[in-house]
Specification:
5-stranded mixed β-barrel; binds zinc ion; 8 strands; alpha+beta; 5 helices; 3-stranded antiparallel β-sheet; 242 residues; OB fold (Dihydrolipoamide Acetyltransferase, E2P)
C-alpha cells in the first residue's frame, strides 16, 4: 500500500554502500522506520531529504511483514541546515533524541509532532535559548504522558503554591519539606527553579530564568526520565549542551 506523510527526521544509519535506514516522527503515524534506497549517493536530492532535524514529505510503500517501510519519493518541507550554525544542533539533538527514545513505534501523537516541529523550526531565530529547550522538554513530557507532579507534593499530595524545595527523581515530582527524607534520589531546587516549574505547570508559560537555572532543570528532568526508562534507551544528549 502506498502512503504519504510529513515527517521529522530523527536519525539515520548507513545500511549499505548506497542506502540508509531512516527513523522519523511522522505526522499521521508516529515514529516509523524507513529504508531509503540510494540515499547515500553523492549529491542526491533524495538523500538531502533525510537530514536529522529536517522535515520532509515522504511517499512510502507500507510493509505488511516488517516495521521497515520503503521510501519511494520525498520532498524537503523544511531544510535544517541553519541548525548546524552556532551550535544549535545541540538543543536540536536533545529534542530529536526524545523523539527517538521516548515514543512508541507507529503510535500517532499529533501534540508531540507539533511541539517538536515548532521547536526545531524556531531554533534558527531563537538561537540556542535554553528556556526554549526547557519549554519544549516540559511540553514533550506532557505530550508523551510522562509529566512529573508539579502542583503538589508527590507523596502527601499537599498543595505547593510556589513549587517545592526538592524534586524527587525517583518519585517524579516535588516533595514538601515534611516528606523530604534523605533516601531516594533528590535534587534541591533554587527558589527560581522551583517557581519556574510551578509557573509552567499552572500557566503553560516559562517565567524569565537564567541559562544556568534552565540547564539545571533540564538535567533534573532528564534524570527523572532516565530513572523511569530502562537500559540503552536512556537520554544522553543533555550532557553536550553548552
Ligand atoms: Zn509531602
Amino acid at each position: 500500500m502506498i502512503e504519504r506523510t510529513e515527517a521529522i527526521i530523527l536519525k539515520t544509519q548507513n545500511f549499505s554502500e548506497t542506502s540508509r535506514i531512516v527513523s522519523a516522527f511522522t505526522r499521521q503515524f508516529g515514529r516509523m522506520n524507513f529504508m531509503a534506497k540510494g540515499a547515500r549517493k553523492p549529491r542526491s536530492r533524495f538523500g538531502a531529504s533525510f537530514q536529522p532535524g529536517g522535515v520532509s514529505q515522504i511517499v512510502f510503500y507500507r510493509s505488511r511483514h516488517s516495521e521497515l517501510h520503503t521510501v519511494s519519493e520525498t520532498d524537503v518541507v523544511w531544510d535544517p541546515s541553519a541548525l548546524a550554525e552556532d551550535g544549535r544542533m545541540n538543543p536540536a539533538a536533545v529534542a530529536l533524541e526524545m523523539g527517538y527514545k521516548l515514543t512508541a513505534l507507529e503510535s500517532p501523537n499529533m501534540a508531540f509532532y507539533k511541539n517538536l516541529s515548532g521547536f526545531l523550526r524556531a531554533l534558527p531565530s531563537s538561537g540556542e535559548s535554553p528556556s526554549q529547550l526547557l519549554g519544549f522538554f516540559l511540553a514533550a513530557l506532557n505530550n508523551l504522558g510522562h509529566s512529573p507532579r508539579l502542583d503538589s507534593c508527590v507523596k502527601c499530595r499537599r498543595e505547593l503554591k510556589s513549587g517545592g524545595p526538592v524534586f524527587s527523581v525517583t518519585e517524579g515530582g516535588f516533595l514538601c519539606p515534611r516528606c523530604h527524607a534523605p533516601e531516594g534520589e533528590c535534587v534541591h531546587l533554587r527558589p527560581a527553579q522551583s517557581a519556574a516549574l510551578y509557573g509552567w505547570h499552572s500557566t503553560g508559560e516559562l517565567c524569565d530564568i537564567t541559562r544556568h537555572d534552565c540547564k539545571c532543570l533540564i538535567e533534573t528532568l532528564t534524570a527523572f526520565v532516565n530513572h523511569h526508562i530502562s537500559g540503552r534507551t536512556k537520554l544522553i544528549c543533555v550532557k553536550y549542551l553548552a
